[in-house]
Amino acid sequence: MDNDTPLIYGLEFQARALSAQTAETDIVRFLVGTQSLKFHNNQVHLVELNDETGGLKTQVFQHSVGEIWSLQASPTDIDKFITCYNYLNDEGICQMKGALWKMPEMKEYTNDIVKLEKLDDLDTTSYGNDLKTIAYHPMDGTKVVSVVDNNFVLWDLTDSKCQVVTVGTLSGKGQPRFTNGKWNPHNGCNQFVTLNETNVRGWDFRCPSETAWIIQPAHSQIVRDLDFNANRQYFLSTCGDDGYMKFWDIRSPSDPIVSRMEHSHWVWNIRINRFHDQLVLTSSSDSRVILCSIASISSEPFGHIVPTEDSEDPSQAEESSKEKLEDGVVGRYEEHEDSVYAVEWSSADPWTFASLSYDGRLVLNKVPRKYKYQILL
């Protein structure tokens, strides 16, 4: 795969659910879930980048229970993932459901549509009907949180059986329902963060009845997504329908540290690179994916730090770049023709990322070589 040449994979059905195969750290792989209105036609596609040929290898799995609205791969088990899907019950009423799945062991990819094994259901109906997402713990494959109505529910998946551990509720009259949620990877992963309307709330599992902190309002319109900087403890990013991406220090949440508007429509996804956190991806309904440098609040503001050869003290380092890297757009990617609902960094290669548009087009790109070398050298 040449750095400047995208790889495009077309799905037969519409799609908006994308996840990197997080537990796989050697091979670039992504999982994609479809949204066919004919529920029994839905599929999960495993897409792998072949380093030898530079092409893509794929395997299709059957997900006949319903259209997939969100999908997340296990952080510890390569063959496991969770889906939130729209299900048509016996009364002809659509319901959102969640399930834990396992892919069969495969020695090679085939052209056949392979059946998945459902390990268990995550039944959230007692907490509400509007299931938005199910989020894996960043490092523990036995813990997930489901976001449903005004509740976030912590589950234990030990032995692939789903049991409720903790429930937190946003109480009060007229409170909008949660629209999304994500674990805080810092401080022992004791916090979960929810979005509703223009607000971002942090919750502590040790006291789930009270908000730990709040950004209110974070955006002038609905907040669609958030992501934490894995290398800076209190820093997170948000994006929303106002077209902005914003970066916050939750210790002083009254104003964003950085605010940029690079898209012309709603911003659906934001992802900070785990290894080089100055690299930030956003995807939007304007059919674009934008890669930005936000070096001003990065843990590597001068690029990579390398020790000097004649230094007696190994802790003494020489900065590979004399000047601070600037904030700005690194790349604009316009291979999509529909709303780009998802974008994800690869867990195996920090320079590779995938984006997915509603028309079922998956595109793999790499960080421009020029900027990659600017960070590394």
Essential attributes:
5-stranded mixed beta sheet; 48% strand; 4-stranded antiparallel beta sheet; mainly beta; 377 residues
* Helix/strand class: mainly beta
* Number of beta-strand segments: 31
Q: Helical stretch count?
A: 1
What is the molecular shape? globular
Overall mean pLDDT:
91
Strand content: over 45%
Helix content: under 10%
- Distance between the terminal alpha carbons, to the nearest Å? 22 Å
The largest sheet is: 5 strands, mixed
Widest beta sheet: strand line-up: 2-3-4-5-9
Radius of gyration using CA atoms only: 21 Å
Low-pLDDT runs of 5+ residues are 306-322
Description:
- The protein is mainly beta and 377 residues long.
- The chain has one helix at residues 369-376; strands at 7-10, 15-20, 29-34, 43-49, 56-62, 67-73, 80-88, 94-102, 113-115, 117-122, 131-136, 143-148, 151-156, 163-169, 180-184, 191-196, 199-204, 211-215, 223-228, 235-240, 244-249, 258-261, 267-272, 279-284, 289-293, 305-307, 317-319, 328-333, 340-345, 352-357, 361-366.
- The strands form 8 sheets. The chain has a 5-stranded mixed sheet, with no helix packed on it.
- It is globular and about 60 Å long.
- The model is unreliable at 306-322 (pLDDT under 50).
